[in-house]
Amino acid sequence: MSMKLKHVLFAIIAFYCLLLASCSNGTNKDEEFPPTMTGFININETAYKMAVGNYKWERKQGLNTQVVETDAASPNQIAENYKVIMVEQDTTMNIEIEENPEISIYLWNEIGRDEEITPNKNQIFSPKSNGQYIYEILAKWPNGEVSYTFVIEVR
How many CB atoms sit inside 10 A of residue 18's CB? Predict the structure, then answer.
């Protein structure tokens, strides 16, 4: 085989390898399915990762629709294994979730969802009463939603 032919074959193989690498799943956040949207609660300039619960994602590929949905533990059950964040009364808590989804915030009691809390620009304040509080953040994007949980103890 001539040297020129070897170079051409090498170039073709290299091109296909690059093409395959760029098309593989998981190399780009936009191609990852279902996406992993990380959520944090930022308190006193410290970011605490929120626990992920249920999620549902949908994507269309041509004529097909792919849906991934989980049925995770409830925020009360997730809270049992979440490291409680100690805060003072009326502390500012900022919710930071990738790609700024629309959010709903719920306070949980031992039975289930207790009350909805209205954020102001993804910011809420810890309660004025001492005790442990479980929060659920329901984040919604155009093609999916994720439930996040965090737990605080007001002292």
Answer: 10
Pairing status of strand 85-87 against strand 144-154: parallel
Q: Are strands 123-125 and 39-43 parallel, antiparallel or unpaired?
A: unpaired
Cα 149 from Cα 155, distance rounded (Å): 20
Residue 38 neighbours by CB distance under 10 Å: 14
Residue among 127, 123, 102, 101 at smallest CA distance from 114: 127
pTM of this structure: 0.79
Q: Which residues sit opposite 97 in a β-bridge?
A: 39
| pLDDT tens for the chain, residues 1 to 155 | 555 555 444 445 544 444 444 444 333 455 789 899 999 999 999 999 999 999 999 999 889 999 999 999 999 999 999 999 999 999 999 999 999 999 999 999 989 999 999 999 999 999 999 999 999 999 999 999 999 999 999 99
